[in-house]
Specification:
The protein is of the alpha/beta class and about 220 residues long. It has two domains: about 80 residues, Multidrug-efflux Transporter Regulator, Chain: A, Domain 2, CATH 1.10.1660.10; about 120 residues, Response regulator (Rossmann fold). About 45% of the residues lie in helices and about 20% in strands. Strand 9, helix 8 and strand 10 form a beta-alpha-beta unit.
Length: about 220
């Protein structure tokens, strides 16, 4: 099995694009399960699939992505969208909406996801794998300092930019956040001009290059 998966990894790895139609073995590779488990998912209707003329099961890549995200499964890099991904973790709906408008006015094709509590934030970070996180420091049931520390302790987020946004900024708070691994700190209220350099620094698209349109 290990040799087989190594070959699948070479065929489906980061150096090659993943096909739109996947076999049960491909899905098993991405989900770290056996092909028999994938067949059970398809037969039970929990994972959409279809049969070829030869009776083999096939799964649409987009259906697999929705399936994995819906169950909080970590998406491998091969399946992540090519467009830049930004997460906003904040329980203030008006502020979240304002942030979304500002970000999309600067980069219309960003993929943005939001979370309003600690549990949702954890699930979002692992399933969405953002390039950049805007994190409110003070939220009910969420310690922004602890979230920042946890992000930096997770190897999968080594390249993720963390920008703390708070109305409670001070020199000691800023110093502690940087010690915990925060990349940027913004004080509320902030200006549009404060956001642009953060977005450009931590989203990987080359400068001036338009990203793929969000469906």
């Amino acid at each position: 099995m290990r040799g087989y998966r190594t070959k699948r990894r070479r065929r489906l790895g980061l150096t090659m694009s993943v096909p739109d139609i996947l076999s049960t073995h491909d899905v098993a590779h991405f989900c770290a399960v056996t092909p028999r488990t994938v067949l059970r998912w398809v037969d039970a209707g929990v994972l959409p699939g279809f049969q070829t003329g030869g009776g083999r099961r096939r799964i649409q890549k987009d259906d697999l992505i929705r399936f994995m995200r819906g169950r909080g499964m970590v998406l491998p890099d091969e399946l992540l969208p090519s467009r830049n991904r930004v997460a906003i973790v904040d329980d203030d709906l008006l502020h979240v909406q304002m942030m979304q408008r500002v970000l999309l006015s600067m980069a219309p094709h960003l993929e943005i996801r939001t979370a309003a509590d600690g549990f949702s934030a954890g699930a979002l970070l692992f399933s969405f794998r953002p390039h950049l996180v805007f994190l409110d420091l003070v939220m009910p049931g969420l310690d922004g300092f602890d979230v920042c520390r946890r992000i930096r302790a997770e190897p999968d987020f080594g390249n993720t930019g963390v920008c703390i946004v708070t109305a409670h900024m001070s020199a000691p708070v800023r110093r502690r956040l940087h010690e915990l691994g925060a990349d940027e700190c913004l004080s509320k209220p902030f200006r549009r001009a404060d956001i642009r350099p953060v977005l450009d620094k931590y989203t990987p698209a080359p400068a001036g290059k338009r990203l793929a349109v969000v469906p």
